[in-house]
Design brief:
Helices cover about 30% and strands about 35% of the residues. It has five helices and nine strands; from the N terminus they run αβββαββααββββα. Strand 1 (about 40) and strand 2 (about 40-50) form a beta hairpin. The relative contact order is 0.21.
């Protein structure tokens, strides 16, 4: 009798995660809701380090040059296609000739992947455009079942199966608008020994107004994987950048 009970408990231990999963499957598909705030069971959000406001322009001036760089460790992102598609949807014509553009959008993908102790949304936003990520404690949370060695072990297995995964995409952007007569000043600081610095100034009429920002998009869901999160992050990021344009 005891042997049969022991066998039953062991069988239940191995079957329980599968039974729970069959009733609580996570849908992390690529279809975004009309609100843009969720996709299936995936919660989406986008934040900026600051706000950019551009004056409205005539339809003839809605011509933009797009440059996308990727200095993250991820490869094969192809974010430029997403951004061009979003801009086209907002009524912009994309040109490969900077001289023909009224706007230029320069973007750099800094990070795309799991949010962690070292890479957080709050830390990325605190760093601002061109700044480093300021790591802060991040708790994803897992479920644990207490009560006996077997219960604790089973809780650990179930908790690992139902972990809230957070992925984020961090992009620095520079938006330039053609503005005749605009005066631009750049400065470079160089260390001269232990107690002095040297500053070099470079000023001139550049005819472009410059706006800079850092944008962070986040996708979160139970058991979300990168393959499902990546297209959602790119779509949300492209939507946010395109909607900055007037």
């Amino acid at each position: 009798m005891k042997r049969g009970l022991k066998f039953f408990i062991m069988a239940l231990f191995f079957l329980l995660p599968a039974l729970i999963l069959s009733g609580c499957a996570t849908n992390a598909g690529p279809t975004t809701s009309q609100s843009g705030l969720s996709s299936g069971n995936v919660a989406l959000s986008t934040k900026m380090s600051s706000s950019i406001f551009l004056q409205p322009v005539s339809p003839a001036q809605k011509v933009v040059y797009v440059s996308v760089r990727n200095t993250s460790t991820a490869t094969g992102i192809n974010f430029r296609e997403n951004l061009i598609s979003a801009l086209t949807g907002e009524g912009y014509t994309v040109t490969n000739n900077p001289s023909a553009a009224h706007f230029m959008i320069m973007s750099n993908v800094l990070y795309i992947g799991l949010e962690s102790h070292n890479y957080t949304v709050a830390g990325a936003l605190a760093g601002g455009f061109g700044g480093a990520f300021i790591g802060s404690r991040y708790n994803s949370g897992t479920s644990m079942v207490a009560g006996g060695a077997l219960g604790a072990l089973a809780g650990g297995v179930i908790g690992s199966l139902f972990t809230q995964k957070h992925y984020m995409m961090v992009v620095d952007i520079q938006v330039e608008e053609r503005h005749p007569g605009t005066y631009t000043t750049n400065s470079t600081y160089a260390s001269q020994g232990t107690a002095s610095t040297e500053t070099t100034y470079n000023a001139g009429t550049r005819n472009w107004a410059i706006y800079r920002d850092r944008i962070v998009s986040e996708a979160a869901a139970l058991n979300l994987n990168f393959a499902s999160a990546e297209p959602l992050l790119k779509q949300q990021m492209a939507h946010s950048i395109a909607n900055l344009m007037p």
